[in-house]
């Protein structure tokens, strides 16, 4: 069938090259599993829990389907394949293309307990500044300049061009700047009235601090709202804003992060023995998607052991719903990362139809960008000198659901309920008792001696660097960040609906209208992202948040990368089940298209609650994706348009995949109704909709219009 944009799908030309040698190894190691076709209706197959997986790559055993149990019965340590069938969904009242309002729901807050002043500050958040803006000019007006310096780039593969002067950013109204020290020099760059706060041991261990050593302003008395605007310098090429390239670079909460680009090593690992040159990181932590702490497990990164030995951490509230937090199954945060830069998609490169709300550096110069102020309106109070500023940093909550020491002194964000655990650490609800606003606080511990902490910091800084430059209705908004003792906090727009992954867990597969809506919005965010030559590299349900109005936000940019060239090799990063074949095979020639493949997998995930090939264990799934010519079964319940959309996304040849901008014109999403639910306005009527003439009641209703 000829694609709607005029390019026919073509067969993939199999390229047998040296880069695929690991696949060959896999071929020998694993029996090629027969395709587990998705059920025609549900598209979901299940299998028994297997606590004693002795051999990787074994195909999951299908089990008889049982009625969908309540979500609360879903084991926290089940894999996708193990998860019970999803319940039929009441079709959510989702309506696509919500790009207007940004009303997040509030979460739980906790009592403040300020203990210690933040050692340094990055731009402090003020969500209200964002929400109240009616246009981009207003938005820009609340940005603060930011810059981070770094001299070491050897282990960083994401040279985000963040050091270039922003055409819209100015320093004139900034009381301070925050800088990041160079790891090599251990010297903080002083900008404006910046004061270094580097700890002694930081200077001794530049490698640890290079990623996030910030300076605080000398005495930046915060002025109400826009009065005080600190600067944050973000690094130029090679700074810590980049995604790690090191094969050992990834934190271990995502089990297989840091998976090296060396696929020979991969082969060895997959063969069942650790590659001697690969450091096995990680603690085996896993999150509990079912319980709301749904991130971090089963990612491919620094820790390969789980993939190899299948140790499990069940029963813990922090445990993954997956038997092994490794590649055993497609958990919400299954990731692999290593390596190199992703080449540019041949046909990607921006979308004229996509709202471009941020400037992107093009000339390599240092860029400054103004960030929104925190929602602190108290004057005569320095954000850097909180009354409790000498106390200790916020402590890790004892209970998974509530922080023990809920406070972020400088910004007055109080750390509240735990939203989830990810690769980098924890994400909490943040509440500003002064403004009454909420945010999501992503917390990561710095200055630890382990590689995991270093990698976490590096990736978090990359996320900051990227997110701080992106502003789009379908991308989670970055508010600011700060360091408090050994903790780095990143403040984000709070998207209270949770991730698509969690929604699927809780409510089962989505109906087509919801899928169309979500897909359209994901595409909108992706098209914007790609127009900035940035690839997300970890598109999946767990990294897509949904607000109560059905608005979708791309999140978790820890894997994202700004593409600067076309000749760069692919990074072996991502989540196995959503990973494009070319990434697994380490073939060349694509880049942004990896997100399109992952989007296709996400559509299938939304339709079936599981990604493609979820019936296979992690390594076997990767083998299936990377080595076979098969395409995953597409569930029958999807419309023909939906099926075609998925097929377009899941073309093995990346150059044949349409771009995000092109996909926005696909009938599957183009016809999706936009999400726009007006604010309820009290209305008094005596004839409620739906009542017959004979059934009239005097009721007070809220006007709810769907545009
Ligand atoms: N802005 C947000 N609003 C609401 N919840 C959020 C937000 N950001 C993250 N969360 C929650 O926290 C969890 C972990 O977040 P996130 O995935 O970004 O952390 P992470 O360390 O990047 O994880 P990973 O890299 O392993 O995917 C998410 O699954 C989600 O439930």
UniProtKB/TrEMBL annotation:
Entry GO terms, CC: cytoplasm
PROSITE patterns linked to this entry: PROTEIN_KINASE_ATP, PROTEIN_KINASE_DOM
Record bears the keyword Isomerase: no
Disordered: annotated span: 1-135, 150-189, 313-417
Cross-referenced InterPro entries: Kinase-like_dom_sf, MAP_kinase_kinase_kinase, Prot_kinase_dom, Protein_kinase_ATP_BS
Reaction(s) catalysed (UniProt annotation): L-threonyl-[protein] + ATP = O-phospho-L-threonyl-[protein] + ADP + H(+); L-seryl-[protein] + ATP = O-phospho-L-seryl-[protein] + ADP + H(+)
PANTHER family, per database record: MAP KINASE KINASE KINASE SSK2-RELATED-RELATED, OS04G0559800 PROTEIN
Listed name of the protein: mitogen-activated protein kinase kinase kinase
